[in-house]
């Protein structure tokens, strides 16, 4: 049986990845983060070790002891945890002292380099998940109106630019006006802020960063995203084709249909 390591972050992504890996006959050795990873990970992981954000040395030792040579990172770590539940061990502290940028991509690349220096290869987080990564096209029966397409195009350009700057990966647009931009708070809070400011009818656009490394925290939306859109009276959800994971895909699209929310997957060069 193939043995694979899983570095589990927050949200449903680690659970969905773990469940699919098990279907593929993979034995999972999981490191889970306190205050971030759902407790349900213990149901699907063969071996689960809990640790605090920043315990890089413990991650490496866990995989080495288990004889793991390949790992996947699934799910993010909220940046605010760097100010609250952050307890680096000696290796984690040394790593942070060396790295200059706290940009998500640079941090994750740095962690991957630390792992690979120890003979642990980091695989793409989309491993086993091609079924829930959409191709370009309209994913619901309803399509965006011409005005909504204009909002999507504007949002795509802005989201790519803030991604290039390392700020965030999601924006909300209404009537060709950007009403909310993601920073450290995450997609759901962007949607809530857009709802307060625009009173509904807005489009949410979520993309990958330019030159996104698919080994790390690929953008993901799901049932919870649609739920927040419904609460805030959002109208359109646009994601980047081929580079976004749809968590609980069937239910997510059914919920969107029921609430007349349009979901589209667009090319990053649209």
Give a quick precis of the structure:
The protein is an alpha/beta fold and about 270 residues long. It folds into two domains: about 5-125, Rossmann fold (3-Layer(aba) Sandwich); about 130-265, LpxI C-terminal catalytic domain (Cytidine Deaminase, domain 2).
Structural write-up:
- There is one protein chain.
- With 270 residues, the chain is α/β, with parallel strands linked by helices.
- The chain has two domains: 3-123, 3-Layer(aba) Sandwich (Rossmann fold), CATH 3.40.50.20; 131-266, LpxI C-terminal catalytic domain (Cytidine Deaminase, domain 2), CATH 3.40.140.
- Helices cover 37% and strands 21% of the residues.
- It has helices at residues 13-23, 41-44, 56-66, 90-98, 104-117, 146-164, 187-198, 223-231, 249-258, and strands spanning 3-8, 27-33, 47-51, 70-74, 121-123, 137-138, 170-174, 177-181, 203-206, 220-221, 236-240, 245-246, 262-266.
- The strands form three sheets. It has a six-stranded mixed sheet. A five-stranded parallel sheet has the order 3-2-1-4-5, sandwiched between helices. Strands 10-12 form a two-stranded parallel ribbon.
- A hairpin with a 2-residue loop joins β7 (170-174) and β8.
- α7 (187-198) runs parallel beside α8 (223-231) and α8 runs parallel beside α9.
- It starts with a strand and ends with a strand.
- The relative contact order is 0.13.
């Amino acid at each position: 049986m193939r043995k694979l390591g899983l570095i589990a972050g927050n949200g449903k992504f680690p659970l969905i990845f773990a469940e699919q890996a098990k279907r593929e006959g993979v034995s999972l050795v999981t490191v889970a983060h306190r205050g971030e990873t759902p407790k349900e990970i213990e149901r699907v992981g063969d071996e689960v070790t809990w640790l605090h954000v920043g315990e890089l040395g413990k991650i490496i030792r866990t995989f080495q002891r288990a004889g793991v040579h390949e790992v996947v990172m699934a799910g993010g770590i909220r940046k605010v945890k760097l100010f609250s539940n952050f307890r680096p061990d000696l290796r984690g502290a040394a790593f942070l002292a060396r790295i200059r940028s706290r940009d998500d991509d640079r941090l994750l690349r740095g962690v991957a380099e630390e792992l690979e220096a120890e003979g642990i290869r980091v695989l793409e987080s989309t491993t086993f998940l091609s079924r829930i990564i959409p191709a370009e096209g309209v994913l619901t029966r309803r399509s965006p109106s011409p005005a909504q397409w204009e909002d999507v195009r504007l949002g795509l350009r802005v989201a790519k630019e803030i991604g290039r700057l390392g700020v965030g990966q999601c924006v909300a647009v209404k009537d060709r006006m950007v009403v909310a931009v993601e920073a450290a708070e995450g997609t759901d809070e962007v949607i809530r802020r857009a709802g307060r400011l625009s009173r509904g009818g807005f489009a949410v656009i979520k993309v990958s960063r330019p030159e996104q490394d698919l080994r790390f925290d690929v953008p993901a939306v799901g049932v919870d995203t649609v739920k927040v859109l419904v609460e805030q009276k959002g109208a359109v959800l646009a994601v980047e084709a081929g580079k976004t994971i749809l968590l609980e895909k069937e239910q997510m699209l059914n919920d969107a249909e029921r609430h007349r929310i349009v979901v589209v997957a667009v090319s990053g060069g649209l």
